[in-house]
Amino acid sequence: MTGRLWDITQPLRPGMPTWPGDTPFEQSRVWTMGPDCPVNVGRFSQSVHAGTHADAPLHYVEGGRSIEAVDLEVYLGPCRLIDLRSAGPRIEPVDLSPWLVDLPPRVLLRTYETFPLNDWDSHFKPVAAESIALLSDHFVRLIGVDTASLDPESSKSMEAHRMVAERGMAILEGLMLSDPPPGDYELIALPLPLAGLDAAPVRAVLRELE
């Protein structure tokens, strides 16, 4: 018997919060079931960074790999969900230090008491580049966050993303982490193979370990 599944994916829908200035989610019906049509067919458009998504190196490295070329293995396997709601305005190495024993290669960081499903938050908690380096030193290969980015909304230097690039790590953003208890799980979060693009939506799930 498999363990319980926790869906940690934002539903893609009209009116969902979007990074300021980016493409909002839109959907429409192309065909409608009726006397002359046997099926319903819809279409949608959105930013590749809308909702729960995986960043590709192309997003933050000139000439980096696009999302269809990333290694899928890193998005599957043991992970640790870390509760950092009590951390300060930025995730620092000291916030992570209690969680580093026997750390699996994937780490998800919860910062919200309740995930802001319907409101854009410009003051989300970013992750210090030093914290990413610390996780890498403990052999973490993927970092996931419940915020819209590792770096502050106003950042021009993208220090956290640059550290991820330097350490060869993968990124998940926009995860809904309010419901699962902190602890160890199996992560399943495969990005769509959108050829040539810098990110892709994922359906992210945590499976409880037996």
Instruction: Note poorly predicted spans.
Output: none
Q: What Rg, in angstroms, do the CA atoms define?
A: 18 Å
Number of helices: 3
- Widest sheet: strand ordering: 1-11-9-5-6-7-8-4-10
Distance between the termini: 9 Å
Order of helices and strands: EEEEEHEHEHEEEE
Instruction: Assign an overall shape.
Output: globular
List keywords for this structure.
210 residues; 11 strands; two-stranded antiparallel sheet; alpha/beta
Description:
- The chain is an alpha/beta fold.
- It is about 10% helix and about 25% strand.
- It has a nine-stranded mixed β-sheet with strand order 1-11-9-5-6-7-8-4-10, with no helix packed on it.
- Helix 2 runs parallel beside helix 3.
- The protein is globular and about 65 Å long.
- The N and C termini lie close together (about 10 Å).
- The model has no long low-confidence stretch (mean pLDDT about 95).
